[in-house]
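From the methods appendix. Each design record in this collection lists the tokenized structure first, followed by the designed amino acid sequence. Records were kept in a plain field format so they could be parsed without special tools. The example shown here is representative of the layout used throughout.

RECORD:
FOLD TOKENS (295 positions):
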């Protein structure tokens, strides 16, 4: 095929696109002409392309800038995570306020009944902090370092300024002890009988509490005294709790004074009923707990 014939064919195709056609709409009954359009093939292609582009742009705008995108699978509300965090903080604040109000009402009831007032050890002041600009970032190295530190310090005991565990910095009388269990003392402290503590009888399922802040150094079962838990305290004090039914803490746990650590029971061979055998040791020597704690 020669170049002239190709040019003529291309020119014929272009002229064919530009040829005008008339679209007439008539009444079916009277054949009266209602509407007529004068179009070319090129006009039809341009009109269809323009409508398609407008539809694509409108659909993109609806998906990107309107809430309709939330109904499309795979899309979510970008503000959802922020609302969840705000609700979590609000829930935490409401829980704290509820606990404070419950404690307040309970203390009023205790005052009326002549019982001991329960002290709240939690911090009462909550600062107004803006958390919106805080970025929660934690690297892999930071997580590994935290895990190593927690594993390395979980079994640490308390030492004094001279880094000597056996040399206390204060006397035993200067410490404020928490009553481990409220009940009736059935057996007193007696060194001559090798009874190095006191036996306390209380109601079933009563919680046994730590007498001082410290670190759990023993939490396990023994044949004679059943479930036993021992706590190392500051200034080389050790408290021992025997014949429990359940242990709530494990070795290495750090506990606070008054924190539940076990449930009273009658486990072990050397027991005649549900009670707590409580011992208090100072510098490796057992002392009478009644001299320092009001039961």
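DESIGN:
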């Amino acid at each position: 095929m020669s170049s002239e014939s190709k040019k003529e064919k291309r020119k014929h195709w272009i002229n064919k696109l530009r040829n005008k056609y008339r679209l007439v709409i008539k009444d079916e009954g009277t054949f009266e002409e209602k509407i007529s359009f004068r179009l070319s093939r090129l006009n039809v292609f341009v009109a269809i392309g323009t409508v398609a582009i407008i539809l694509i742009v409108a659909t993109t705008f609806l998906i990107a800038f309107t809430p309709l995108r939330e109904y499309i699978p795979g899309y979510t509300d970008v503000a959802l995570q922020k609302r969840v965090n705000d609700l979590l903080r609000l829930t935490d604040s409401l829980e704290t306020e509820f606990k404070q109000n419950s404690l307040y009402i309970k203390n009023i009831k205790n005052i009326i009944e002549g019982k001991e007032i329960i002290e709240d050890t939690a911090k009462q002041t909550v600062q107004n902090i803006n958390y919106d600009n805080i970025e929660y970032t934690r690297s892999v190295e930071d997580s590994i370092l935290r895990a190593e530190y927690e594993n390395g310090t979980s079994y640490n005991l308390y030492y004094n300024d001279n880094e000597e565990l056996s040399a206390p910095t204060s006397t035993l009388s200067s410490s404020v002890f928490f009553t481990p269990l409220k009940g009736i003392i059935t057996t007193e402290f007696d060194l001559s009988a090798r009874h190095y503590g006191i036996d306390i009888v209380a109601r079933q399922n009563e919680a046994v509490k730590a007498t001082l802040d410290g670190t759990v150094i023993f939490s396990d079962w023994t044949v004679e005294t059943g479930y036993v838990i021992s706590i190392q305290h500051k200034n080389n004090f050790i408290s021992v709790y025997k014949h429990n039914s359940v242990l709530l803490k494990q070795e290495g746990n750090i506990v606070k004074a008054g924190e539940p650590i076990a449930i009273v029971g009658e486990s072990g061979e050397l027991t005649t009923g549900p009670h707590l055998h409580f011992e208090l040791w100072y510098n490796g020597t057992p002392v009478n707990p009644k001299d320092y704690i009001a039961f």
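APPENDIX NOTE: The chain has three domains: 3-67, 79-136, 172-291.
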